[in-house]
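Structure in, sequence out. Go:
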């Protein structure tokens, strides 16, 4: 594969830990290879952090918290906007890093970078608002006392993120954590540490004081688990698989840490017979094949009303066979490789199992033979509902289509899962659209809309998909403690509204 012009010898990739404002080697003296999933070539060796590095980072964050928590929202907003500008200035460079390390097409990587900028700008605004609402009077009965509620930063927080949207999942945590006045130890995925390390450099250049943001690269066992256990960490905000999320929750329980979890999904797109078929085809393909299907929000279960089932299947079959899979830097490529070998092998196992499970028919697209973790986009029609392909999160470019006869049946089929992250509904009947949206156990419903996500809204799901919500004011609240202050009504210092969180 042609190297992108930015990725030249002499342009250093960040590979060290970032602790207390310094780039440093890990205590253990070990390194981890970082692989380009399009070529399987090793592109960097990053520090393999361990529990000693976690301890060092947590202590640095605890020291920094003493002063960072006293900054005003306006001061933090200035730094958050400087980070957004820094990301914007290095937009091309970051998009290339995303594609190089994760394998997503460059156009998709650019969307990710735009999302990161929007998230930092949005939480800058919320940080500023904290100066107005950081302490507010509460109406209580009687006139003997006055009460106020203060929103204070939760403390030192651990941010643990996956590999499918590096930088985006990080920004959704880092921006609100900093806005709230928390200090941070971030653990990127060992699969995709390069974009996060570059983000750390941008944070440093923006003028964020040393110790406020610390980045420890390494494995889940060597870095993630010690972070979830560390006594100085007040809260863990985790995005990743449901199995590891449960493990993080158990570990955090020993020291009664707060946890926010963004986990897996098995989401549906429901297409009614009155739908615009072109729109439905685009929305199904986007929900299954964007980021090569490696999305917690993949709508990989397609529920289609019976009268249009064959017509939609025909259009989707055409889409599957025409999807261009290949080098993410090449113009016209719509889908890159999966991000790592383990995921590639996992998805191949699901596809093989699905073929054995008795689908009515299977349509496969084309993909380069390798090297690189390229998987053919694949569609299964009428796979039995007990097949793992229908029930479990595949996290690859695989969609399963089944038909339904009534609105209630569609809602029941969509809700028949242990997850509850998102859903899409396609219908021209606005009343039905809202009715179905209300009936779905999902934290996000897109109605005749692609999977657009605005930082002003919310992110997270029902059941085993999440605990808590990211984005919007909910994302900020996840990094705050609430304190009430009660005093005799005549006491001085009981303001209606006080500046500073
Ligand atoms: P993963 O759970 O394997 O790893 C996530 C992170 O946890 C990584 O940084 C990993 O090193 C770390 N980790 C592993 N073991 C740990 C432990 N014992 N303690 C603490 N940390 C540990 O997930 P993944 O394979 O990187 O990502 C894919 C998963 O992420 C999918 O299930 C996907 O649905 C989910 N995801 C969810 C959302 C969401 O918003 N709900 C978004 C993106 C991805």
């Amino acid at each position: 594969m042609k190297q992108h012009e930015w990725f030249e010898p002499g342009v250093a990739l960040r590979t060290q830990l970032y602790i207390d404002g310094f780039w440093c080697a890990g205590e253990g003296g070990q390194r981890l290879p970082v692989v380009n999933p399009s070529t399987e070539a090793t592109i960097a060796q990053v520090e393999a952090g361990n529990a000693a590095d976690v301890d060092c980072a947590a202590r640095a964050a605890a020291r920094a918290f003493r002063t960072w928590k006293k900054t005003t929202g306006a001061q933090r907003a200035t730094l958050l906007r400087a980070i957004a500008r820094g990301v914007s200035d290095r937009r091309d460079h970051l998009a290339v890093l995303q594609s190089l390390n994760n394998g997503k097409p460059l156009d998709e990587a650019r969307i990710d970078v735009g999302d990161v900028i929007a998230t930092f700008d949005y939480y800058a605004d919320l940080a500023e608002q904290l100066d107005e609402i950081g302490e507010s009077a509460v109406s209580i009965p009687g006139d003997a006392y006055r009460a106020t509620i203060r929103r204070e930063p939760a403390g030192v927080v651990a941010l643990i993120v996956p590999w499918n949207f590096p930088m985006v999942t990080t920004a959704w945590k880092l921006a609100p954590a900093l806005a709230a006045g928390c200090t941070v130890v971030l653990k990127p995925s060992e699969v995709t540490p390069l974009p996060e390390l570059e983000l750390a450099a941008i944070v440093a250049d923006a003028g964020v004081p040393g110790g406020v943001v610390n980045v420890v690269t390494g494995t889940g066992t060597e870095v993630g688990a010690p972070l979830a256990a560390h006594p100085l960490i007040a809260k863990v905000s985790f995005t990743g698989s449901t199995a590891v999320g449960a493990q993080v929750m158990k570990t955090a329980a020993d020291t009664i840490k707060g946890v926010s979890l963004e986990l897996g999904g098995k989401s549906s797109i429901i297409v009614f017979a009155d739908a615009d078929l072109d729109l439905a085809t685009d929305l199904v393909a986007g929900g299954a094949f964007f980021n090569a299907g490696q999305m917690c929000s993949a709508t990989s279960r397609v529920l289609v009303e019976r009268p249009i089932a064959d017509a939609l299947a025909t259009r989707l079959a055409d889409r599957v066979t025409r999807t261009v899979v290949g080098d993410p830097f090449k113009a016209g490529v719509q889908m890159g490789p999966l991000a790592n070998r383990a995921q590639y092998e996992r998805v191949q196992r699901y596809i093989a199992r699905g073929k054995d499970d008795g689908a009515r028919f299977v349509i496969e697209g084309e993909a380069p033979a390798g090297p690189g973790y390229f998987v053919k986009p694949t569609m299964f029609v009428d796979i039995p509902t007990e097949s793992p392909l229908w029930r479990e999160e595949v996290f690859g470019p695989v969609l399963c289509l089944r038909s339904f006869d009534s609105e209630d049946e569609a809602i029941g089929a969509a809700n028949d899962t242990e997850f509850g992250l998102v859903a899409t509904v396609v219908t021209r009947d606005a009343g039905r659209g809202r009715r179905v949206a209300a009936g779905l156990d999902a934290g996000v419903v897109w109605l005749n809309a692609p999977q657009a996500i605005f930082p002003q809204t919310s992110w997270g799901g029902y059941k085993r998909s999440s605990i808590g919500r990211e984005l919007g004011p909910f994302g900020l609240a996840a990094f705050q403690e609430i304190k009430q202050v009660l005093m005799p009504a005549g006491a001085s210092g009981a303001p209606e509204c006080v500046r500073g969180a």
